[in-house]
Amino acid sequence: MELNKIESLLEKYEEGQTTLQEEAQLKHYFTTETVAPHLEVYSSLFTYFASEKQLSPQRPLAITRSIFNQYRWFASAAVVTIMFSAFMTLTSKDEFIKLSNEEQFAYDQTLKAFDLISNQMHKGSVSLNALNMISSSFEKGQQNVAFLEEFNNSTNKIFNIK
Fold first, then answer.
1. Which whole-number Å values give the CA distances from 139 to 1, 132, 142, in the listed order?
2. Which of 30, 102, 123, 133 would staple 43 via disulfide (CB 3.0–4.6 Å)?
3. pLDDT in tens, 3-55
4. What phi, psi does 161 have (nearest 5°)?
5. 62 lies in a domain?
């Protein structure tokens, strides 16, 4: 085959514009004929495809439906979770109505106490975030000090200062 034609086919192949017939011509050139020295890089590509095509699996692959079964289990778990949460929501409202006035008052006070505790804990976590920011600033400062010490050592070596 003409070398110019092979080079033009390779350019088209690299751009992804070759047809199956043109790729077959390239494969035939690189597997059967002597390849030009500057095109030997491509020969390993086309000979690899030819050698891999001849390989067969050692054992037959079993087709399973495991992915389908996993989706079925996930869907079942989601349905059970939704039904459980709906049941608990409905029963808790019914139970709240059945409580006496004193018990409803105690329940409301308990919810207010939990809300207060939650707010106070949130305020504490905001303070900890400020401490984390200060800690990261100190770490950056330590890195800068280490950099300045290294710079100082380098300048001392350059100017022979002891």
1. 67, 11, 5
2. 30
3. 888 888 888 888 888 888 888 888 888 877 678 888 777 777 777 766 666 66
4. -100, 135
5. no
Task: Give CA–CA dist 122/116, Å, rounded.
Answer: 10
Establish if 61 belongs to a structural domain: no
Which sign does the torsion angle of CA 7, 10, 15, 16 carry? Answer: positive
Percentages of the chain per state (helix, strand, coil), in multiples of 5: 85, 0, 15
pLDDT digits over 101-150, tens only? 888 788 788 888 888 888 777 776 666 676 777 777 888 888 888 888 88
pTM for the model stands at: 0.34
* pLDDT for res 52: 65
CA angle 154, 157, 162 (to 5 degrees): 120
C-alpha closest to that of 30 among 40, 20, 17, 15: 40
Handedness of CA 105, 110, 113, 119 (dihedral sign): negative
Condensed to tens digits (0 to 9), the pLDDT of residues 60-96 reads 656 666 666 777 777 888 888 887 777 666 556 666 6
Provide the domain count of the chain. Answer: 3
The range of the structural domain enclosing residue 127 comes to 105-162
What is the C-alpha separation between 53 and 58, in angstroms, rounded? 14
Same domain, 90 and 109: no
